Amino acid sequence: MKIRKEIILIIISSLICASLTYAQDTDKTNEETSRILFYNVENLFYPEDDSLTNDDEFTPDGIRNWNYYKYRQKLLNIYKTLAAAGGWHGFDLIGLCEIENRKVLSDLITGTPLAKYNYRFIHKDSEDRRGIDVALLYREKKFHPVNVEYYKVLSHKDTAFRTRDILYTKGTLSGDTLHIFVNHWPSRWQGVLETQLYRNTAAMVLRKAVDSVIRATPDAKVIIMGDFNDEPGDVSLSQVLAAKIERDSVVDNDLFNLSGLFVSRRVKGTIKYKGFWENMDQFIVSAKLLDAENGWYTGKEDVNIFSPEFLLEDEKDMPGKRPFRTYIGYRYAGGFSDHLPVCLTLHKKADN
């Protein structure tokens, strides 16, 4: 009965998303659209020990008793989320974080019904101690990568520090060049202030990479996505990266944080911590992507948090909902993730 209810909720969510996408398309009948998603999938580990990383708890003999059944269920849950969020058209690009290796990516795109979309992926193992990385899935018939780079985030004050690389991909989508950055910045697990230096460092690395792209191509269309472990108004994003949250203040080659608008819309957020929603998962774009007159463009109404009922559960000790995650502490719950996905729609006029 529970499985049937979950399937019904997924179908309803998919139909709602599809109808919204159709409404956008019919409102702009002379435009092409493309959709992008970012999702922190929460600890997608392959259930075997990797002697080079600290992944012991996500093995059959580990404290979480992570086995092939749970792994398979996790893959199917990710597929269900992507299918429901994608509606009729699906996503041309999908950024992921907290994935362990190429094996889990291959299993996701070939061993689930996601195989019908013919995705390929871009990924490289980073030096993260837990062995989790970022990746980019792309539809082979839609997006054509022409250059890939990985930027390491290293701390001069803590030479032992290791975290995820920032993934950069330059590619063409319907003949228009996009510059994509996928991020998963250092967490707050030791405390917000204690770890702020590491996120500021990640922001400096990203800012330098973006500046390099824009110097080489002044009209570059840059899309930055990720779990930043900071909110849009925090120092790392608003000052170090200099991603603005007020549309009217964006000029020249500024960066604009589309997710900064979630605050003004009173959207709850992408992750819940100690009873409070936070907007850690975001889309940031360069000013050139706000121009509707030249190829792909986007705007303030084109980003949203995907939050259907099946991705949520009731809070135990307080009113409200929270993301339905795979584990509650060390107890297996069989859910989806502790984060909600964020979606971005691009538009392109037919004559561009």
Question: Can you give keywords for this protein?
Answer:
352 residues; alpha+beta; Deoxyribonuclease I, Chain A; 6 helices; globular
Describe the SSE topology:
Blueprint: H1 2-27, E1 31-44, H2 68-86, E2 93-99, H3 102-110, E3 119-122, E4 133-139, E5 143-151, E6 166-173, E7 176-184, H4 192-216, E8 222-227, H5 235-240, E9 243-244, E10 255-257, H6 261-265, E11 271-273, E12 276-278, E13 281-286, E14 303-305, E15 312-314, E16 321-323, E17 327-328, E18 331-332, E19 342-349
Parallel strand pairs: 1-2, 7-8, 9-10
Antiparallel strand pairs: 1-19, 2-4, 3-4, 5-6, 6-7, 8-13, 10-13, 11-12, 14-19, 15-16, 17-18
By DSSP (H or I, 4+ residues per run), the number of helices equals: 6
Give average pLDDT, whole number: 90
Structural class: alpha+beta
Tell me the number of strands: 19
Task: Describe the protein in words.
It contains 6 helices and 19 strands. It has 352 residues and is of the alpha+beta class. The protein starts with a helix and ends with a strand. It has one domain: Deoxyribonuclease I, Chain A (4-Layer Sandwich), CATH 3.60.10. About 3% of the residues have low confidence.
